[in-house]
Amino acid sequence: MSQPLRVVLTGGPCGGKSKTLAALERTFPNDLLVVPEAAMILLSGGIPRPSHGVTVWTQEWQDDFEHAVFALSHSLERIADRRAATEGKRLIIYDRSCLDGAAYVEGTVEEFCKQYRFSYEKELARFDVVIHLQSLAAWDPAQYELYVGEHRVGEDVATANLREQKLLTVWEKHKRHVVVKGSPNLKEKVDRVTALITGLLAESQ
Questions:
Q1: Which of 86, 132, 151, 191 gets the most CB atoms within 10 Å of its CB?
Q2: Nearest-5° angle of CA 90, CA 101, CA 28?
Q3: Domain that holds residue 44
Q4: What 3-state DSSP class applies to 13?
Q5: Per DSSP, what are the bridge partners of residue 32?
Q6: Into how many domains does the chain fold?
Q7: Tell me: the pLDDT tens digits for 127-157?
Q8: How far apart are the first and last CA of the chain?
Q9: What is the distance between the alpha carbons of residues 69 and 43, in angstroms, rounded to a whole number?
Q10: What is the largest CA-CA distance in the chain?
């Protein structure tokens, strides 16, 4: 059997990743294996999300959190690789990858890779395509503020756009880095991603 198509789905906050993944699971029910986002697993599993009056967001909190995210993300990716081989999956979609962590800490992506002792070039080469869904904060900051409100501390417009730019930098050297611009019509954005992956699967046959 040929190797599965490996796709990273990335982008700043409120880019439409969840709805895009749901649509892809409906489109490729038998071929697709989704690697869930490690950060969301940790936050839903008991690590308190910073919020007003509970846990104060600081860069130190973020750095500690990213240590946990990296370890879990690395394990999830390895498990998915083995599952895909066993179950004959043609497509693996990673809801972020280990490299995304570089956008949430201070310093460059090279410094991040050195800290976690892995090769930037080898990590880029692991994936066939990287799809960046533009954050709502980048193309409609007013709507982003209304959507996020006070419930996601540490993710105001300025911070969200910083994450967005750092993620673009993290992945800019990938041979197939596709940026899907924001749109008031989310279905249009989702359809673009679906069409792209459909074409890539056809190429890989």
A1: 132
A2: 20
A3: 5-204
A4: coil
A5: 91
A6: 1
A7: 999 999 999 999 999 999 888 765 565 688 9
A8: 11
A9: 10
A10: 54
Non-local CB neighbours of 11 within 8 Å, separated by 6+ positions: 17, 132, 133, 134, 135, 164, 167
The token pair at 193 is 């991603």
| Cα 22 to Cα 16: distance, rounded to the nearest angstrom | 10
Both tokens of 26, joined, read 């409906």
Per-residue tokens: 74: 């690395």
Residues 197 and 65: their CA atoms lie apart, in Å, by 32
Q: What pTM value is reported for the model?
A: 0.93
Q: pLDDT tens digits, residue range 32-67?
A: 999 999 999 998 988 887 775 667 788 898 999 999
Assign residue 106 the CATH number of its domain: 3.40.50.300
> Could you say which DSSP state residue 183 is in?
-
Tokens of 110: 């090279």
